[in-house]
Amino acid sequence: MSTPTTPDAGTHNRATPRGLFSYRPYWARRFGVAPVLPTTRAEMDALGWDSCDVILVTGDAYVDHPSFGMALIGRLLEAHGFRVGILDQPDVRNPESFLALGKPNLFLGVTAGNMDSMVNRYTSDKKIRSDDAYTPGAEAGLRPDRAVTVYAACARKAFPGTPLVIGGIEASLRRIAHYDYWADRVHRSVLIDTKADLLIYGNAERAIVELAHRLAAGTFIADIRDLRGTAHVRPLRDFTEIDSTTIDAPGKLAPPVDPYAMSPERDTAACATGEAPSSPGPLVQLRARKAPDRASSVIRMPSFEQVAADPALYAHASRILHLESNPGNARALVQRHGKYDVWLNPPPIPLTTEEMDTLYDLPFSRVPHPRHGDAKIPAYEMIKFSVTILRGCFGGCSFCSITEHEGRVIQSRSEKSILGEIERIRDTTPGFTGNISDLGGPTANMYRLACKSRTIEAACRKPSCVYPDICDNLGTDHAPLVSLYRKARAIKGVKRIFIASGVRYDLAVRSPEWIKELAQHHTGGYLKIAPEHTEDGPLAHMMKPGIGAYDRFKALFDRYSAEAGKEQYLIPYFIAGHPGTTDEDMLNLALWLKRNGFRPDQVQAFLPGPMASATAMYHTGLNPLKSIKAREPVHVVKGLERRRLHKAFLRYHDPANWPVLREALQRMGRTDLIGGGKDKLVPAWQPAPHAGVRGRGRMQPGVALTQHTGLPPLPHGAKSRRGRR
């Protein structure tokens, strides 16, 4: 393998990255902007192209909308002058489908699409889904399982020797050795399986633009090893190696040294390792000797073979990965896979507001490619009138992949850019009737929220800015968001603006004015919200706030709804079977639901996605949110029967679940909850099956999908704006 490039050649050590749009455009810019990026040779001919510079292979149908990753990256590369073609949902059984655009001049980019292909294909019970929201007509089965690996193999066969780059959420969350829920074992890095030249993880814009320009300048891809936000295979050279066990000991070893302590005040800071050190001794000793230079050091993770064989080492590796996720202080990581080293460069530097504006102002047509005709693409139908206003999430929920993929630093667009996009939707998007379906992102109310100190932000290693409580250094002012809402509503031709993104209610209660704005202008009867659980045990393992924060938010939401003369309701979402959840926890949640008059229909069971901290808990039975040396056990719900029981508690009102709930209550010594009356969970009698009961997981006709018992049921088949939230 080639020798690594020097630091000056790339962005690995660049404190201030090169501007995303500061490059000299590639010569092919003379061809101008394509109405849509081509998917066939005929479309290339119509544009006057003899070849593509970059071809993007994706598991989603091509929709030229900034919410679809292949369109965002494709239009960005086009803005830099490159000719970009799209192969959407190619037929892996037909090699000719990968030859449709010919050989690219620079590289092939492969992604599974906006969703992980396994999550897209299978439920949390590992059952095959009957539809695919990212496919015309919602047709299932048009993308293969483990799509990145399959597409990469087909691309290699079609164009041997052409640089191959993988990315998107599926590749991003599989960049190191990871537990695979569907195979129930630890898998190797997807880099090893695909033999890709480069993996781009997280937000790919900076890396993909610099990669394209350097390849166009004649640099071999084997020599491009210093881009932030990328992973690759190479031998270790010219770097100081740090054993990961010196950062967090995975066993009963000496107290772990914190090599990142910045000052005496940080000696007891939870942002160092997740808990206070047992004594100041090791830290004092560390400051007495010189630490290795951050730019020239790499953390050696336990190897694939080690984490596959030892659950404690897997939990340790997961913890190290999450501790080393801040772009301001993260070091490179390396993990051995057999005779190869998989190398992870530090995360990408977040985009500036100006860069976000220019990116989202690119000339998207905002409609599916014409080749899809009139076929409905459900994912597009959901977001075609929505606007992304931010990226990232500092919530750090242990079950969520947003932080691992997009990062915890919030990247916000300007008011001008957002309002301009609303006007473009009004003027150019077919079918617009005046309603904007969402102004949001991963979280609705993190717009322009950030650490009060850039110095502290760059040094912090906490996985969450809001757990166990909101950090004193976090700005929580929602005034810019309130201002944005009011200006957006004032745009001529806009009737209503709904907020469909998730609400972080513990932040919202710090800004009652925002809750008032949300309740009185941006809620359509129901507002979905996700407390996830009521009990402290599960919530601690989820890194979510206590149910008291939900109660405070509800009180304000109800008050402001009443002031506006609106009858509106919160619809709370909960997770069944999350690590750290006992049968007693689910029973208490069911009792809370009944006391508060909730009868959920659609319930959510924990799905262990790759790389999440909660997945490490599920696989290992240990808690990586704390030092692994403590070997803190985590109660894990495994097996179909236990998982179904926890879901049954959420749907306590469904007669199909009563037998299993009665059996569980008897086993738990809670027969006092069986019988008639409001204080009981399930009745002692069982109704005979009849045509009105649809079976497990369903409700009788006439009951809304998610019904609050304070509302009358909708007529069967009737539609209402209630379901919007």
Can you give a write-up of this model?
- With 725 residues, the chain is α/β, with parallel strands linked by helices.
- The chain folds into three domains: 7-229, 3-Layer(aba) Sandwich (Rossmann fold); 240-323, no CATH class; 523-725, Transcription Regulator spoIIAA (2-Layer Sandwich), CATH 3.30.750.200.
- It is built from 25 helices and 23 strands.
- It has a ten-stranded mixed β-sheet with strand order 2-1-3-4-7-8-12-11-10-9, sandwiched between helices.
- Helix 11 runs antiparallel to helix 23 (613-620), helix 19 packs across helix 21 and helix 22 (583-595) packs parallel to helix 24.
- It is globular and about 75 Å long.
- Mean pLDDT is 88; it is low at 1-14, 253-290 and 691-725.
Structural topology:
Elements: H1 41-47, E1 54-58, H2 69-79, E2 84-88, E3 107-111, H3 117-121, H4 147-158, E4 164-166, H5 168-172, E5 178-180, E6 185-187, H6 190-194, E7 198-200, H7 205-216, E8 230-233, E9 240-243, H8 270-273, H9 281-288, E10 297-300, H10 304-309, H11 311-323, E11 332-337, E12 340-344, H12 353-360, H13 378-383, E13 386-388, E14 390-391, H14 402-406, E15 411-412, H15 415-428, E16 435-436, E17 438-440, H16 454-459, H17 479-489, E18 496-497, H18 505-508, H19 512-521, E19 526-532, H20 536-542, H21 547-563, E20 569-576, H22 583-595, E21 598-599, E22 604-605, H23 613-620, H24 640-650, H25 658-667, E23 707-708
Parallel strand pairs: 1-2, 1-3, 3-4, 4-7, 9-10, 10-11, 13-17, 16-18, 19-20, 20-22
Antiparallel strand pairs: 5-6, 7-8, 8-12, 11-12, 14-15, 21-23
Helix pairs in contact: 11-23, 19-21, 22-24
